[in-house]
Specification:
Chain lengths: 312, 308, 442
C-alpha cells in the first residue's frame, strides 16, 4: 500500500469524532473534520482491502494446497521442510488420469448426470415454480411447504428402498437412475428458489402479452423465463453442483457402468495405499468444470440473485 | 363485476397450474414416496439385519429408545454445537463478507469470482484436502506453525475430539460460505441506494444504518439462508465421513445426529432404529425451520403494521 | 418491501400446519406398499460342472486378479467373469450391506474378512460352505477370517499377519543392534527410548479410528497372554493381562514418550506405512505390505536397511493379529457353483505364488508357505513362518462395529490419561457383555 502513514493518522482522527454522542454535535463534526473524514474514508478502504485479501487467502489457500499436492510428489510436501522448487513440478498424474479410461468414463458419467439433472430440474422445476408464483390455485402454498419436508429427509435411510425401487424398474447402475433420483432430491430446492424469482417479475408485462394474444404457455416461456434468466442461471448452478458432487447416493446406487467422479476419487483412498497425488489431481479435475461453469454464469448469478433476491 | 368470467379464468388458472406442477410432484412422490414409506414402516419394527429376517412389529419402541439413548443425546449436543456455529455464525459471517464485497473497489469482480472456489470443490475432495492440511505429522498447518516458531511439537489436531469438531466446523464453514455470501450479496444489491442516502442525511452512523436499514431489507433472503443452512447443518455427513475415516471420531467427537444415524443404519445394520432416528431428524429439521419462520414472521408483521 | 411480503405469502404459520398434514397423509399412503422382492437363488449343492458367468466385487488391495488371475480362471474352467469390480475398502461395507439388504444378485462373489464374515454371515447374507469345499492345506488364521462360530462362509485370498518392522539406519545411529528384533517388551522399550529424539520417535501405530484402536489393544492383550473372549464368547479382556497390555501401551505414549503422538490420529495402515517409510520412526508393527512400501523408490529405506522380525511379547514370546482377506459367495447369487470355483481357484498354488511375489502378501496354503521360491521372493515370509508358532487372532464377531466404537472411546481415553486402563476395560467389557447377550441369545 502506498499510503503507509494514513492508517496511523486516521486512527487518531477517527477516535475523536467517534466518541461523541450522535446527533448533538453533528454539525460541529461536519465542519471541523473535513480532513480527518477523508483520512477516515481512506482508513476504512485500507482496512477493507486488507480484509478482502485475507478473505481471498482463506478461500483459496486450501485449494491451492490441493493443486500443489497434485503437482509435486507427496514426499516433497510431507517432509519437515517443504521442497517446492519448480524442478519438482510434474504433470504426470494429470496425464495419467486423463488417459485412463477407468477415470474418464466416470468423468463423462458425472458430466452427463450433472447436465441432465440440471436440465430436467430447470425445465420441470421452472414450470412448477412459475405456476406456484403466478396462479393462485388452492394448495399451492402447502405444496411449496411440503417441498421443505423433502429437503428435511436424511438420505441415509432411503438408500436401501431407493436401491430396491431403481432395481425393480431396471434403473440400478444406470445413468438415468441416478439422474431421476437426483432430480427428485434437487427439484424442491430449485422450485423453492425459483418461486422467489418469478414473483419478482411485474405481472403487467405478462398482461400485455396476453392482450397481444399469447396463451399461458407462450407467456411463460416467451416472457417469464427470459426475464428470470439470471435467477434461473443461479439456480441451475446450484442444481449442477449438487448433482455433480454427490457421493453417498452415487456410491450406493451404482456399481460399475454408472460410477461417477466422486466415487472414483474416493477409491484412491485404499486400505493399504493412499494415493494422495491422484486424489488431489482428481479433486482439481473435478472442481475445474464447476469453476468454469460458475465463472461463465458469474455475471448472471450476481445479477440473478439480485433480481429475485431469493424470496423463499 | 363479471363473477363468472373471474371464476372461469380462475378455473383455467387452476388447470394450468396443476398441469405445470404435476410433473414435479409426480417425480418427487414416485422416487421418494416409497422409500420414505419404507423407512417409516421399518421404524415401527425390530429390524436389525444381524438378528435375523424376522422383523417384529414393536410399535413406538424404537422412538422410545431414541429418547432414552445417551448416545443420541451426546450426538444431539454435538449437533447443536455444530449447527449453532455454522448456521448463525456462517450466516452472520456471510452478511459481513457480503457487505465487504458490496463496496466499490478495484478487483471486486475478481474477488466475487474467487469467492466461488470452495463451492466448486466436491465434499469428498474437501475432506481429503482438510486431512492433508491438518494432519498431525505431515499437515501444512503444523509445518507453517513450526517454521514460524509458534510450536515446537506437532499439534495432533485430529486426535482430540474437541479440536476435530472445531476443524470440522472450520472446513464446513469454508465450503458453505460461498453460497451464503452470494445470497447475501445479491440481497444487498437489491437495496435501493436512495435509502442509504436518506439515512446519511439523517446522520445515521454505520452501526445504525446496518441495524435499521440493511438488516430489515435483507430479511427475506436472510430467512431463506438460515433455513437452508439449518437443513444442511443438521444433516451434515460427507465431510465428517472423509475427515474421520468413516468413524465420526476421534472418541465420537464428530458424531452428529445424522452421522449417528449412518452408524446405526449401516455399521450396526439396525435399520429399524436408524429409520426412527431419521424420522426424528426430519422432525427436528422441520421444527428448526418452523422456528426461523416464526422468528421472521413476527418480525415482518410488526413492520407491515407500522407501515400501515 | 417486496422481498419480505413475498416470503410471508409463501410461508405463513398456518401453512406450516397444513404442511404437517400433507406430509403425514402422503407418508401413511406410502407406508402400506412396503414389499421386498424375493430373488430366486441357486443352491451350492447341485451336481454338474460349474459354468456360465460370475461377477466379483473386490476391494482395491490386489491387482493380480485383474491382471492375470481372471484370464487364467476363464481358460481353466470355461466360466466367464462378467464383471470384476474394485472399490475402496471403506466404501465397500455400505455398498454390500445395501445390496444384501435388497437381496440383490448383481455380484456372485464378494470380498470378505474376519469382521464381515461374522457380520454378514450372521445376517444370513453369505452362503455357507461345506467342509468338502474347503482345501485341506489352508492355514488356520486364514480360515478363521472367513468363518464364524464353526460355519465357513468363504475361502481366504491372502494372509495378512502383523510383524515388526524397524529402520536399521536409525538403530545403528542410536547405538542399538540393527540385526535382531528385541526379544521382549522391556528390550523393545529400551531401544525405542534410544531411538526417540526431537521429531523422531521409536514407535508409531494407527489407532485413530475404532478398528485401529481395537487392533492395537488386541495386539497388546495377546502379547500379555490374554484372551478377548472365552470359548462361549464371554468377554474376558478386562483381565489382569488386558490391563497390563493396555497399561504398557499407555506408557509408551505417556511415560516413555516413545510413541509418535500422531498415532492417535492415523486412521489407516497405509498412512502408518508411509510414516515409517519417511524415516522418522524407529519401528512399527504392521501388515506385510509394509515391506513393499518401505522398499519402494520413494522410501528412505531399502531392502538392506529394513529390519523385520517377531513382535516382542510381554508375558509370552510373541503374538500377532490377523487381517487376512478372502472371498465369499452372495446368498442371493444365481450361480453359486461357478462362484465356488472362483473361491477355490484363488487358493491354488499358482495364484498364491503370484500374490506372494507380486503383491507381498502371505499365502493361504501351507504348501506355498513351505516353498523355498516363495521365501526367496518375499524375505519377510521367514518371520511369518516363525510367527505361526505363536498366537495369531482377530476375533471377528457380528458386533465388531458396535464394539470397536465402544472400546475405542475407552482406549483413547486411557491413552490420554482421562481414565485408568482398568476402568476403561471394565466399562468396555460391560458393553461387550451386553452386545454378546443381544446377538448370541439364541
Amino acid at each position: 500500500m502506498g499510503e503507509a502513514q494514513s492508517p496511523v493518522s486516521a486512527v487518531s482522527a477517527r477516535s475523536e469524532p467517534g466518541r461523541e454522542a450522535p446527533g448533538t454535535q453533528r454539525k460541529h463534526r461536519e465542519i471541523s473534520s473535513g480532513i480527518s473524514r477523508n483520512a477516515k474514508r481512506r482508513l476504512v478502504a485500507w482496512v477493507c482491502g486488507v480484509l478482502v485479501v485475507l478473505l481471498m487467502v482463506f478461500f483459496l489457500a486450501p485449494f491451492i494446497w490441493m493443486i500443489a499436492y497434485s503437482l509435486y510428489p507427496s514426499a516433497a510436501l510431507q517432509g519437515s521442510t517443504l521442497d517446492m522448487g519448480f524442478a519438482n513440478i510434474t504433470f504426470d498424474s494429470y496425464s495419467r488420469l486423463l488417459s485412463d479410461s477407468s477415470f474418464l468414463v466416470p468423468m463423462a458419467n458425472s458430466a452427463i448426470v450433472g447436465l441432465s439433472t440440471t436440465i430436467i430440474c430447470m425445465t420441470i422445476g421452472a414450470a412448477s415454480a412459475y405456476a406456484i408464483a403466478r396462479f393462485k390455485f388452492r394448495g399451492r402454498q402447502p405444496l411449496l411447504l411440503s417441498m421443505m419436508t423433502v429437503q428435511a429427509i436424511p438420505v441415509i435411510v432411503l438408500a436401501v428402498p431407493l436401491f430396491i425401487l431403481l432395481r425393480s424398474v431396471g434403473l440400478y447402475d444406470q445413468l438415468f437412475g441416478l439422474i431421476i433420483t437426483y432430480t427428485a432430491f434437487i427439484l424442491p430446492l430449485v422450485i423453492w428458489m425459483l418461486v422467489g424469482f418469478f414473483e419478482d417479475i411485474p405481472p403487467s408485462l405478462e398482461r400485455a402479452a396476453r392482450i397481444d394474444g399469447c396463451n399461458r404457455l407462450q407467456i411463460m416461456y416467451k416472457i417469464a423465463f427470459p426475464l428470470a434468466a439470471p435467477g434461473m442461471a443461479a439456480t441451475a448452478i446450484l442444481a449442477f453442483i449438487t448433482s455433480w458432487s454427490d457421493f453417498f447416493l452415487a456410491k450406493v446406487l451404482t456399481i460399475s457402468t454408472a460410477t461417477t467422479l466422486p466415487v472414483r476419487t474416493a477409491a484412491f483412498q485404499g486400505l493399504f495405499a493412499m494415493d494422495y497425488t491422484s486424489a488431489a489431481t482428481a479433486g482439481v479435475i473435478t472442481a475445474v468444470p464447476v469453476l468454469i461453469l460458475t465463472l461463465i454464469a458469474q455475471k448472471w448469478i450476481i445479477s440473478g440473485l439480485t433480481e429475485g433476491a431469493v424470496k423463499g | 363485476m363479471a363473477g363468472t368470467l373471474v371464476e372461469k379464468s380462475r378455473k383455467r388458472d387452476l388447470r394450468f397450474g396443476l398441469m405445470l406442477t404435476a410433473p414435479s410432484v409426480i417425480i418427487i412422490l414416485m422416487l421418494l414416496g416409497y422409500p420414505m414409506g419404507y423407512a417409516i414402516f421399518m421404524s415401527f419394527h425390530q429390524w436389525n439385519d444381524k438378528l435375523g429376517a424376522d422383523h417384529q412389529f414393536i410399535g413406538l419402541n424404537n422412538y422410545g429408545q431414541l429418547i432414552t439413548d445417551p448416545a443420541v443425546w451426546a450426538a444431539m449436543e454435538r449437533t447443536a454445537y455444530f449447527s449453532v456455529i455454522t448456521v448463525v455464525g456462517g450466516v452472520a459471517l456471510a452478511v459481513i463478507i457480503a457487505i465487504l464485497l458490496n463496496r466499490k473497489f478495484r478487483g471486486r469482480t475478481l474477488a466475487r469470482v474467487l469467492l466461488l472456489v470452495p463451492w466448486a470443490v466436491p465434499p469428498v475432495v474437501n475432506g481429503i484436502m482438510w486431512k492433508l492440511i491438518f494432519d498431525g505429522s505431515v499437515g501444512i498447518v503444523n509445518t507453517i506453525l513450526r517454521s514460524l516458531g509458534l510450536i515446537k511439537e506437532n499439534i495432533q489436531w485430529l486426535a482430540d475430539p474437541t479440536a476435530a469438531m472445531n476443524i470440522l466446523i472450520f472446513a464446513e464453514t469454508w465450503k458453505l460460505l460461498p453460497f451464503l455470501c452470494l445470497l447475501m450479496l445479491a440481497a444487498l444489491q437489491g437495496i435501493p441506494e436512495s435509502i442509504y442516502r436518506a439515512a446519511a442525511i439523517d446522520g445515521a452512523d454505520a452501526w445504525n444504518t446496518f441495524w435499521r436499514i440493511t438488516l430489515p431489507n435483507i430479511r427475506g433472503p436472510l430467512m431463506f439462508a438460515l433455513i437452508v443452512q439449518s437443513m444442511w447443518s443438521l444433516k451434515v455427513f460427507d465431510t465428517i465421513y472423509v475427515l474421520s475415516g468413516g468413524s465420526g471420531g476421534p472418541v465420537s467427537g464428530t458424531t452428529t445426529i445424522n452421522f449417528l444415524d449412518y452408524i446405526t443404519t449401516f455399521s450396526n445394520l439396525d435399520r429399524g432404529y436408524g429409520s426412527a432416528m431419521a424420522v426424528g431428524i426430519m422432525l427436528l429439521v422441520l421444527i428448526v425451520s418452523a422456528f426461523w419462520i416464526f422468528v421472521f414472521g413476527g418480525f415482518s408483521r410488526k413492520r407491515r403494521e407500522a407501515n400501515g | 418491501m417486496e422481498t419480505s411480503r413475498a416470503t410471508n405469502k409463501a410461508l405463513s404459520r398456518r401453512n406450516l400446519f397444513q404442511l404437517g398434514g400433507i406430509a403425514a397423509g402422503a407418508l401413511t399412503l406410502a407406508g402400506c406398499s412396503t414389499t421386498s422382492p424375493q430373488t430366486t437363488s441357486g443352491t451350492l449343492q447341485s451336481s454338474g460342472k460349474p459354468s456360465g458367468q460370475i461377477s466379483i466385487l473386490d476391494d482395491n488391495t490386489n491387482m493380480v486378479f485383474k491382471n492375470s488371475t481372471i484370464k487364467a480362471f476363464e481358460q481353466k474352467t470355461g466360466i466367464k467373469v462378467a464383471t470384476y469390480q474394485q472399490g475402496n475398502f471403506n466404501d465397500l461395507h455400505d455398498k454390500m450391506a445395501t445390496m444384501f439388504a435388497a437381496q440383490d444378485s448383481s455380484f456372485d462373489v464378494v470380498m470378505t474378512w474376519a469382521g464381515w464374515s461374522a457380520e454378514f454371515g450372521q445376517a444370513g447374507w453369505l452362503e455357507e460352505l461345506t467342509k468338502s469345499d474347503v482345501p485341506t492345506d489352508l492355514i488356520q488364521p486364514a480360515l478363521d477370517a472367513v468363518s464364524w462360530r464353526g460355519k465357513i462362509y468363504g475361502l481366504p485370498k491372502f494372509v495378512s499377519v502383523q510383524t515388526m518392522f524397524w529402520n536399521k539406519d536409525l538403530y545403528t545411529k542410536a547405538g542399538a543392534d540393527p540385526a535382531a528384533a528385541p526379544a521382549n517388551w522391556d528390550e523393545f522399550v529400551q531401544t525405542a527410548k534410544k531411538l526417540t529424539s526431537g521429531d523422531q520417535f521409536g514407535y508409531a501405530c494407527d489407532m485413530g479410528n475404532p478398528a485401529g484402536a481395537y487392533q492395537n489393544f488386541l495386539r497388546m492383550l495377546l502379547l500379555s497372554g490374554g484372551q478377548m473372549y472365552d470359548a462361549d464368547y464371554n468377554p474376558t479382556f478386562a483381565s489382569d493381562a488386558g490391563v497390563e497390555g493396555l497399561t504398557k501401551l499407555v506408557e509408551l505414549l505417556q511415560v516413555h514418550k516413545v510413541m509418535d503422538p500422531s498415532s492417535l490420529q492415523i486412521t489407516n495402515a497405509s498412512d502408518l506405512a508411509d510414516l515409517f517409510a519417511r524415516g522418522k520412526t524407529g519401528s512399527v508393527f504392521n501388515w506385510p505390505f509394509q515391506f513393499a512400501v518401505a522398499t519402494a523408490s520413494t522410501s528412505k529405506l531399502t531392502k538392506d536397511t529394513l529390519g523385520n522380525g517377531l513382535i516382542p511379547g510381554i508375558s509370552v514370546r510373541s503374538a500377532s493379529i490377523d487381517g487376512s482377506e478372502g472371498f465369499a459367495i452372495n446368498k442371493y447369487s444365481k450361480n453359486k457353483q461357478a462362484a465356488l470355483a472362483w473361491l477355490q481357484f484363488v487358493t491354488t498354488g499358482d495364484v498364491q505364488m503370484q500374490i506372494v511375489e507380486k503383491e507381498g502378501w502371505f499365502p493361504v496354503s501351507k504348501t506355498v508357505l513351505n516353498d523355498p521360491a516363495a521365501i526367496a521372493a518375499l524375505p519377510v515370509l521367514t518371520t511369518y513362518k516363525e510367527s505361526t508358532k505363536y498366537v495369531t487372532k482377530r476375533y471377528g464377531t457380528p458386533w465388531d462395529n458396535e464394539f470397536d466404537l465402544a472400546l475405542s472411546v475407552q482406549v483413547i481415553n486411557a491413552m490420554n490419561g482421562k481414565t485408568s486402563p482398568k476402568d476403561a476395560l471394565t466399562t468396555a467389557q460391560k458393553t461387550a457383555q451386553d452386545l454378546v447377550k443381544k446377538y448370541l441369545k439364541s
